[in-house]
Amino acid sequence: xxxxxxxxxxxxxxxxxxxxxxxxxxxxxxxxxxxxxxxxxxxxxxxxxxxxxxxxxxxxxxxxxxxxxxxxxxxxxxxxxxxxxxxxxxxxxxxxxxxxxxxxxxxxxxxxxxxxxxxxxxxxxxxxxxxxxxxxxxxxxxxxxxxxxxxxxxxxxxxxxxxxxxxxxxxxxxxxxxxxxxxxxxxxxxxxxxxxxxxxxxxxxxxxxxxxxxxxxxxxxxxxxxxxxxxxxxxxxxxxxxxxxxxxxxxxxxxxxxxxxxxxxxxxxxxxxxxxxxxxxxxxxxxxxxxxxxxxxxxx
Length: 300
Prior knowledge:
By secondary structure, the protein is an alpha/beta fold. It has helices at about 15-25, 25-30, 45-50, 60-70, 115-130, 145-155, 165-170, 195-200, 200-220, 225-230, 240-255, 265-275, 285-290, 295-300; strands at about 1-10, 30-40, 55-60, 75-85, 90-95, 110, 140, 160, 175-180, 190-195. The chain has a 5-stranded mixed beta sheet with strand order 2-1-3-10-4, with helices on both faces. Strands 7-6-8-5-9 form a 5-stranded mixed beta sheet. Helix 5 links the parallel strand 6 and strand 7 (about 140). The chain is globular, with a radius of gyration of 19 Å. The relative contact order is 0.21. The model has no long low-confidence stretch (mean pLDDT about 95).
């Protein structure tokens, strides 16, 4: 068996495919013994890869894009597509049929504070809809849980959250008014590593990609209840109905990639959002940040 220390940034429901691959033994069946570690602080994730504390990680390609934008000689590269649509949702109190982003001009919005990507992406959506994000009433610096509770209490118009917060808010009389996945492909999660590790631990990396592909074939053909039962050990504090509801929503939105091949349009959507939000000074480009050749080698 090859060995890999794999790093997750934090525990999240939209990372379900990775947990499914571990739970089902897909990586092990491909000849890789995986040790999973949780970094807890996403900004420390890159440092762990560079120091050797982890061989590879999953996270937003935005970290690779940002590193390449700051340093054209960055050793980081993304590969193995997993979450290729935006998992964030706008939740309001009660149903709101016909809601559009233009309606945000009359509602306060609790913006995600835990990670920057969802607000970068939503700002681009707003600008493309002719809305200046600076003119909106936004609440910054609170957690998703706090914002969802404020919506349920009637003290906030909308909250920007991911699952399971949306499903939990629905149980308190709230409803999903808008899914950011509706914009289309946007790369949110993939494997990444240094190019040196891709060369040094090639057999293990190829096995990880084969395991990922096996899981994706299973995931595409499985219902929410089956998926929830498979990954439930990774969400011990979450009741099964909430877990299944969140997975069902993400399946319906087409959040998860069907193969490990990284689509160019999903990458370019994220990069354009980062550029427009001022998160990067220039666009490093798909070819600098993404390695599909290693996927082609693994899968033939």
